[in-house]
Write a structure and sequence with these properties.
It comes from Shewanella aestuarii. 37% of the residues lie in helices and 19% in strands. It is an alpha+beta fold and 507 residues long.
Length: 507
């Protein structure tokens, strides 16, 4: 049977990303796409950070970067600045490192060997000019730099609710996606267990050939109707709650061009600056910190002003579905699963999965068995790599001021794949060949920034005098470029103001 009618259940970022990916891929293939969005469920709006891959996605949808920046309160994100993730008695009370978005060592051979010889600079400062740009709160480009192009690598911080509205407009106008406001009150199944139809509260029974579950934590199709079990990862990633709050900022306040991630005794705090507010969330393990203590910590972070704002606590069920594609249903976004937002992985995984599905969408039901098997293998691999990468931030820490950090170093909580990588990287500097799948979510440069930002003790290789001299020349070029960029690039807020006034050049 040919697949001609597709339903996406749920709006928000996940639903509308899926609508754009599928709408673009299926526009000329006689397939109708209908997004069914509940009028009663607000967008979660917790994860407001992205990774650089989103630029390519938005450009492929035909969305103007200028319009995106104006409509979604966008600011630029060039890094994640991890603060106090190491023992303050050893590394200082304000220790930090940057996970930058520009690749390290851009002007010659990898400088990791050189850094391991005992450089006095932090790893990111040695290998990339972007470190200095971030610390100076500068923009990643000029007003004359065309849309989506960059001088320094970047992603975005954004207002998630406004982002969903922009994606919705684009999907409806460019890709003819139908939009229905309704609640799904029941799901009817075929005898073979696949989904036959949905019962909507205001339209009755609606039948489709294929279903995309973007219904968030509820996962009303994949989890509730198709009974796909959950793979719990709470024994590896220990944080399971978050207190989230939005804090207004002054019109002339400095906008850091990075996410702040500040560790505390039982987790960490994210701090994302938009142009007029900060999105802040304290994530923690309730096995190591009571809810009242967590509120007190967040109140201290906000200089005693928490009571002035509306805030809420969100439970985090950490893990993913055993299958992401079951029968004639694929889950995306939070319906797939949830891991803490330590590296902005939620939107990243949604974008990756939606793009992959669009490129391998079945034209008929006979193709689904083979395609679903491959999709499930790929997405399981991707989720496991994200678990490993997130866990690495914790198990590399030498903090011992609480049971939380000590428990995170317990070998029983470290995934086997990560354990094997760390054992290899004790002896050798990471290289791309260590990550052998094309479906890696994080590349070797991501590992390098975190490993050596946290001062991982790779054995320093033997390096001859000539190689050291060449490496020093390379490092000097990076430092000179950093000085030049700090003179040329505008402040972050200045560039945003110019974009709102003049717009960026079209590509």
């Amino acid at each position: 049977m040919n697949i001609q009618k597709v339903a996406i259940i749920g709006g928000g970022t996940a639903g509308w990303l899926a609508a754009n990916h599928l709408g673009k891929a299926l526009l000329d293939k006689n397939v109708s796409i209908t997004l069914i969005e509940s009028p009663d469920i607000p967008t979660i709006g917790v994860g407001e950070g992205t990774v650089p891959a989103i630029r390519k996605t938005l450009q492929s949808f035909g969305i103007s970067e200028t319009e995106f920046i104006k409509r979604c309160d966008v600011t630029f994100k060039q890094s994640i600045k991890f603060q106090n993730w190491l023992d303050k008695h050893i590394h200082g009370s304000n220790n930090y490192y940057h996970h930058l978005f520009d690749p390290p060592s851009p002007m010659g051979d990898d400088l990791s060997d050189f850094w391991l010889q005992g450089s006095t600079k932090t790893y990111a400062d040695l290998v990339s000019s972007q470190h200095a740009v971030c610390e100076a709160n500068l923009a990643p480009k000029l007003i004359t730099t065309p849309e989506y192009q960059a001088i320094q690598g970047y992603a975005y911080h954004l207002n998630a609710a406004k982002f969903a509205l922009l994606l919705a407009d684009n999907a409806r106008q460019k890709f003819a996606v139908n939009h229905i406001k309704a609640n799904v009150v029941a799901t009817k199944l075929h005898l073979d267990g696949s989904i036959d139809s949905l019962i909507l509260d205001n339209m009755g029974q609606q039948k489709f050939d294929f279903y995309i579950d973007c219904s968030g934590f509820e996962s009303i199709l994949l989890a509730k109707a198709l009974k796909v079990p959950f793979v719990d990862k709470s024994q590896q990633l220990l944080v399971n709650k978050a207190i989230v709050v939005q804090v207004p900022t002054e019109p002339d306040a400095i906008i850091p061009p990075y996410t702040r991630a500040t560790a505390h005794q039982a987790g960490w705090i994210w701090d994302i600056a938009l142009s007029s507010r900060r999105g802040i969330g304290l994530v923690y393990s309730n096995a190591h910190l009571q809810d009242e203590q967590a509120e007190q910590k967040l109140n201290r972070y906000l200089d005693g002003r928490l009571s002035e704002y509306s805030y809420r606590t969100i439970p985090m069920h950490v893990g993913y579905r055993k299958q992401f594609w079951a029968k004639n249903c694929v889950a995306l976004g939070l319906a797939q699963g949830f891991l803490e937002p330590i590296e902005a992985t939620s939107i990243m995984l949604t974008d990756f999965a939606a793009g992959y599905l669009a490129n391998r969408f079945p034209t008929n039901t006979e193709q689904m068995a083979g395609l679903s098997e491959r999709f499930n293998q790929t997405m399981t691999y991707a989720w496991e790599r994200v678990v490993e990468f997130a866990k690495m931030h914790y198990c590399l820490s030498d903090r011992s001021d609480s049971a939380f950090w000590i428990d995170n170093r317990d070998s029983k909580t470290i995934p086997e794949g990560l354990h094997n990588k760390l054992a290899l990287w004790k002896e050798y500097v990471p290289m791309s060949e260590d990550l052998f799948s094309k479906f890696e979510v994080f590349n070797v440069e991501n590992y390098l920034y975190v490993l050596y930002g946290m001062k991982y003790g790779t054995k320093a290789p033997h390096t001859n005098a000539k190689s050291l001299a060449e490496a020093q020349k390379h490092a000097n070029k990076i430092e000179q470029r950093a000085q030049l960029l700090c003179k040329q690039l505008p402040s972050h807020r200045e560039l945003l103001q110019k974009i709102h006034q003049f717009g960026l050049q079209k590509v």
